[in-house]
Specification:
The chain has 253 residues and is α/β, with parallel strands linked by helices. 28% of the residues lie in helices and 34% in strands. Helix 2 crosses helix 3 and helix 5 crosses helix 7. The structure holds S-adenosylmethionine. The site of S-adenosylmethionine has 19 residues, from helix 3.
């Protein structure tokens, strides 16, 4: 099956360990440190790769902004729709591919903040895909807007191999995940088996562990500029050994 079809059924269970509240607090803090974005109802946030809306809920709680939450997977968006159905005044959902679907956004009002979080960028496999993402984001920003995204690095794939294998069960649905990393091409492959009363589904997820230099180069080539690259969830500068990097990017002036 395509990535993020059956997995949508168990996604919230797989992510149970994630402190989304703390993560949103961190993201909004680094936005505030690096950009003049007022928090009011006119502030527009584009959350790319929103998944089932777990982070979107925190954006609703922690800001007054209006939000477009976008994802390429119809199955993930179905869960987001259920989760966010009481918040339609502030959130709208959009289905488009952040590598190839930007035409669908042409003519849209630009955003103050664009977000792409939790390894979404690692799903892009090619330099052309990175260029398409950054060009699409840039076309939807204003000179003062900020784009914040994270990446999982080769160091994360190498250092935390055990963390990428687990299993869980809830309400009669279970999953197991196995994972392998090819350091030669820096490709991380994760196989999910999802067992439901309607059958057993398999999904293969392929992610590229881009280096810090590769991401920085693609940002600059797209006419964007790096304001900060933070190591993990800290305010320290990212280094080659960083396992996760949070990038803060603006349009180059
Ligand atoms: C690891 S999940 C992160 C979801 C959410 N940001 C979170 O933190 O829970 C990655 C998400 O990226 C989406 N995705 C991956 N590649 C995509 C693409 N090319 N275009 C749009 N969405 C994509 C998947 O459908 C999935 O919902």
């Amino acid at each position: 099956m395509n990535a993020y079809s059956a997995l949508a059924l168990v996604y919230d269970m797989v992510m149970d360990h994630v402190d989304y509240e703390g993560w949103a607090d961190y993201i909004l803090h680094i936005v505030e440190l690096n950009a003049e974005v007022d928090d009011h109802a006119k502030t527009r946030i584009l959350e790319l790769g929103c998944g089932t809306g777990l982070f979107t809920v925190e954006l609703l709680e922690q800001t007054s902004a209006t939000i477009v939450a976008a994802d390429g997977s119809a199955s993930m968006l179905e869960w987001a729709e259920k989760r966010l159905k009481e918040d339609k005044k502030r959130v709208s959902l959009a289905q488009f591919d952040f590598e190839s679907g930007w035409d669908s956004q042409s003519g849209a009002e630009p955003f103050d903040i664009v977000l792409l979080l939790y390894d979404c960028i690692n799903y892009i496999q090619t330099p052309e895909g990175l260029s398409a993402l950054f060009a699409g984001v840039k076309a939807n920003m204003k000179p003062e807007s900020v784009f914040v995204f994270d990446q999982s690095t080769p160091a994360n794939s190498i250092n935390n191999a055990a963390f990428f294998e687990d299993e869980g069960e809830q309400d009669g649905i279970s999953y197991s995940r196995k994972s392998s990393f090819d350091p030669g091409v820096r490709v991380h492959t994760t196989q999910f088996e999802i067992a439901t009363p309607d059958g057993v589904f398999h999904e293969n997820h392929v992610q590229k562990a881009w280096t810090r230099e590769e991401i920085q180069g693609a940002i600059q080539t797209a006419g964007l500029t790096v304001i900060k690259a933070y190591d993990g969830f800290s305010l320290d500068e990212a280094i080659d050994e960083s396992e996760r990097i949070h990038w803060v990017v603006k349009v180059a002036q």
